[in-house]
Structures are given as C-alpha cells and as structure tokens.
C-alpha cells in the first residue's frame, strides 16, 4: 500500500500494537501507562507516515508503479481538491489501522468514541 520494506512494515505493526493495547484503557496520559503508550504508538506511526510521504515526494516521477500513497499525494497536490495534507495523513493512518486491526475491534473503538462524544452521535442521528 505504501511500498514499504518488510522491516518498516514490522515497525508499523509495533506502533499500531502499542496504539491498540492502550486505546481501550483508562485515559490517563502519564508515563508508563497504557494510554500514554497508545498515544506514543500513534505519534510514532504518524511520524513514520510523514517520513515516507517526504521520501515519496523526493522520488516524484522517478517511480514506475503507482500505489495508494501516490494517488493520495496526487489529490493533495491538486489545488481543486479539498484534501489537505493533514487529512491525507490521517486517512493513511486510518487505512493502515483498518488493515491491521479486526472489524470487531474497529467497531468497539467507534462505539467508545461515540460514547465519549455524544454530540457526534446526535449529529449522526440528525443527518438523512
């Protein structure tokens, strides 16, 4: 999906595991807590994604194959599109998360989010 080596993919896996292991725990952001490790896992995964994006931009036009990342970066570069770089990075994180985690865990996280943010649930219920 991002044209990564196996070594980079394993590092992503480590960061996503840290993210998931602490995501459903009590949200206290103190060092050595599962929640802190979860936030660090997300931060590290996002840094890896940013580094890959930076590297890919340097290789623009030099690669023969186009993958998911190339298409996303093309949309960000297109001035007519509304996709910002921050949104693109979050989308890449979400797609990689979906590829890593099971559907049931993703649904559980969705319910946890909706429970923590009832105004979002209200907005979703109002939409046709």
Automatic annotation (TrEMBL):
Q: Name one Pfam family in it.
A: p450
Keywords recorded for this protein, A-Z: Iron, Metal-binding
Q: Which InterPro entries match?
A: Cyt_P450, Cyt_P450_sf
Superkingdom, according to UniProt?
A: Eukaryota
Q: Which GO terms describe its biological process?
A: brassinosteroid biosynthetic process; brassinosteroid homeostasis; sterol metabolic process
Q: Name one GO molecular function term.
A: monooxygenase activity
Q: Which PANTHER family match?
A: CYTOCHROME P450 26 (PTHR24286), CYTOCHROME P450 87A3-LIKE (PTHR24286:SF185)
Q: What is this protein called?
A: Cytochrome P450
